[in-house]
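Q: Predict the bound structure with adenosine-5'-triphosphate.
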Amino acid sequence: MSSDAATPTTPVARVKSTGLHKGEIGPGVAKVDPILVADGVKRTFGGLTAVDVDHLEIPRNAITALIGPNGAGKTTLFNLLTGFDKPDQGSWAFDGKSLSGVPAFKVSQRGQVRTFQLTKSLGLLTVLENMKLGAQHQRGEKFFSGLFPWLWRAQEAEFDVKALELLKRFKLDTKKDDFAASLSGGQRKLLEMARALMSDPTLVMLDEPMAGVNPALTQSLLEHILNLKDQGMTVLFVEHDMHMVRHIADWVVVMAEGRVVAEGPPADVMKDPAVIDAYLGAHQDVDLGVVTGRYEGELSNEAAELVAEIEEAQADAGQQKGKE
Ligand SMILES: Nc1ncnc2c1ncn2[C@@H]1O[C@H](COP(=O)(O)OP(=O)(O)OP(=O)(O)O)[C@@H](O)[C@H]1O
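A: Predicted complex:
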């Protein structure tokens, strides 16, 4: 890892977005300005219902976290909304236009982009080549334009400039000619994010941005995600790291067994008995970190704090029940 990439940028204090919803908070609550609206989306695998979402709205220009225990259906929902999988039923619209049945490459052309993990084959491309894969409307790929090399050469040069600018912003410019496979876990995450920005998206969907990231790069990654919002983009991310969720999310959507069981501002959601039930369920004796697979063995201070918070909320919920 380059020492540059590991240097955390100075954190900037940012106010969280509030007032994102209309009416009483609960699963499926309407948003003041939704960028993505899903209705009746269901996906089954044999007898198993992986996703069964009645209604979901994602607020524009905010950071929304999609959380839930293992197997809750988060990744399947991500795959459906981005055209990587097809639902049994349901519809959804991005920026007011239906996206149902639209294939993944067209979804990203419309401005809704998701990060995808560096597979083995992408690891054998250089960092710069990976970036150029994220660019849209590649003229050289079209038959007619392909006949006139000067057209695609000009575009190729544009992509080079854009890719290098982004790599610089993500402190990966010195790695541009390295195989992507040689990057550290955190640098890969940065590359995934930088690659997604090649197509100037409106909505960026991040799949577990913190997984496998060394603590030295955590701050830098968080800053990059917050910057996306500052630049007018909307962020939707799946994450198991509750500390990160509380730290950067303006809104949290909780899934369990395919359904949205709760949503709201992070501080409120973490205290919602439905969320505690979803995570702890039958495992009342197990801490949240172990349930989410994020912590093994000894808990970090943050995780211990969160578990204490949940236990406190559980005790409150128990006391309230007792009073009823
Ligand atoms: N291709 C598939 N074939 C069969 N079952 C699947 C398939 N994809 C997902 N599932 C099942 O659907 C359910 C939801 O899985 P999904 O990966 O969406 O959950 P998740 O919330 O993303 O979990 P995790 O946090 O562990 O990634 C799980 O029970 C999973 O085993």
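A: The longest helix spans residues 301-323.
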